[in-house]
Each structure stands twice: as structure tokens, then as C-alpha cells.
């Protein structure tokens, strides 16, 4: 058994270079896990951060406390981003609080394993696509009028968009839609010098994993991530340099790409 404890206070040792000074970022799903780690890293790099989340008030406040503890500035707004009006509201909130928007990280996620396609209800299919694919599009659409040359859009998909997953058929499909939209948006926005890229994580130990498997199949959680060459799941803080790289205005000739952070679990892209 490998240690799977997640603790984004590990970012206390993160060495920042000021890459995002004077930038404003929206990071969704930032009350825990990958989103929380990215929000903290962005703040340490000099960005002001708006945290989008749903329901986890304690987690959102923890993210803000960690950011403020490092001397950063962050605000949070709760809302279901699967509904377009809440995406509009989040963008307007960011503008009202900080006056601009430079970076958008679409990171919110949801998954619910089913051992048969017959068990995937209409409601589950819609919810999965709303939280992953629809929210990404709605929030990007709301943000675009306020983005400018040098702005960055970064989308968190999944390794499952590339290799599939027998128990996460709807989730893999929603992430596949994110990959296709990322590449299409990149083609559309490249002449405006707005880069659109993404991260496709492999097994990362986050609260979403414990929430997903705790009641369904605890044995899956016990073995989570041990089948990749690294022999363990990744931690959220191990991904943040990639998110900073994609947000960095000096990274000006990369768009429509996904970085694969998966402990050596290689696949064709």
C-alpha cells in the first residue's frame, strides 16, 4: 500500500518565479484536489485568483486561507457551472473583484462508476457532461469577451479520454468532448494569440477519488494508481508546474495540446 494522503500544504515548498504577476485567474473545482493546488501555485506566482466551486464552503475557505497565508489574494464563489447563468455570474464576479481576466482553468469534475452501460441513467449522463464538457464551454464563452492577447485557457481532462475506462463510460466520453473542444477552440483563437491547452491527468489522489469509491468499492481505492509504472497515484501538487507553464505568457507558441501527467502510463495521443 502506498501513501495516498493528499495535503496541498506541501505547496509551502513551491518555488515561484513571478510568472503570473499582475494576472487574474479563474480556477474551477478549486475547493480541493488539483484545482486547489493550481490556485495556490498561481497565487504564489503572483496571480489574483477566483475560486469556482460547488457546495464545499469549508474547502473553498481553506484554499483562500492557504493563499492568503502565502501573501496572495483570492475570492470564492459557489455555483453549479453546469448551468450557463452561473458561468456568466462567475466571470462577472471575477471582473467586479479584480477588474480583469487573463487565465481560465476549467477543472471542475464529477464521476460515478457503473459496472454496466445499462446502469448509466439519463440523469447521470447529463450531470457528467454538464459538469465536465458543458461547464467548460459555458465558462469559456462567458470569459472570451474579456480575454485579450496573451490570455490562456487551460482545461483539465483525463487519461480516460484517450484510453477509455470500462466503469467510467460517461466520464471518459465527457472528457473526450473536452479534448475535442480544446483543440477546436485553439484553432479558432490562435490568431488572437489566446492559447488553449489542457492537462490529461492519470491517477491523482484527490478527495474526488475517496468520494467516488468509499461506498462503492473500497478495494478499488486501495489499489488506485498502483498499476502505472510509477507504482503509485500522483499528488495534486505534482501537477502544478504544468499548469503554470501553460498559463505563462512567455509560453507563446503552444496551443491545442494536452500534457499527460500519469506516472508513466503511456498511450497514443
From TrEMBL:
It comes from the Bacteria. Signal peptide: none annotated. Pfam families: adh_short_C2. Belongs to the short-chain dehydrogenases/reductases (SDR) family. Keywords: Oxidoreductase. This is NAD(P)-dependent oxidoreductase.
Amino acid at each position: 500500500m502506498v501513501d495516498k494522503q493528499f495535503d496541498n500544504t506541501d505547496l509551502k515548498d513551491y518555488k515561484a518565479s513571478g510568472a503570473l504577476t499582475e494576472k487574474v485567474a479563474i480556477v474551477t473545482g478549486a475547493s480541493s484536489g488539483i484545482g486547489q493546488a493550481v490556485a495556490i501555485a498561481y497565487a504564489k506566482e503572483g496571480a489574483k485568483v477566483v475560486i469556482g466551486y460547488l457546495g464545499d464552503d469549508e474547502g473553498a475557505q481553506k484554499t483562500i486561507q492557504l493563499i492568503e497565508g502565502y501573501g496572495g489574494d483570492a475570492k470564492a464563489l459557489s455555483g453549479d457551472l453546469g448551468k450557463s447563468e452561473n458561468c456568466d455570474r462567475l466571470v462577472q464576479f471575477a471582473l467586479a473583484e479584480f477588474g480583469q481576466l487573463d487565465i481560465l482553468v476549467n477543472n471542475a469534475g464529477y464521476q460515478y462508476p457503473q459496472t454496466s452501460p445499462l446502469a448509466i441513467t439519463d440523469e447521470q449522463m447529463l450531470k457528467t457532461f454538464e459538469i465536465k464538457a458543458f461547464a467548460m464551454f459555458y465558462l469559456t464563452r462567458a470569459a472570451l469577451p474579456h480575454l485579450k492577447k496573451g490570455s490562456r485557457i487551460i482545461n483539465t481532462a483525463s487519461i480516460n479520454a484517450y484510453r477509455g475506462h470500462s466503469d467510467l463510460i460517461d466520464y471518459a466520453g465527457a472528457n473526450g468532448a473536452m479534448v475535442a473542444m480544446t483543440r477546436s477552440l485553439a484553432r479558432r483563437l490562435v490568431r488572437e494569440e489566446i492559447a488553449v491547452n489542457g492537462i490529461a491527468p492519470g491517477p491523482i489522489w484527490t478527495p474526488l477519488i475517496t468520494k467516488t469509491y468509499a461506498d462503492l468499492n473500497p478495494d478499488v481505492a486501495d489499489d488506485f494508481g498502483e498499476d502505472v509504472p510509477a507504482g503509485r497515484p500522483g499528488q495534486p501538487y505534482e501537477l502544478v508546474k504544468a499548469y503554470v507553464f501553460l498559463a505563462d505568457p512567455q509560453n507563446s507558441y503552444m496551443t491545442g495540446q494536452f500534457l499527460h501527467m500519469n506516472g508513466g502510463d503511456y498511450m497514443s495521443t
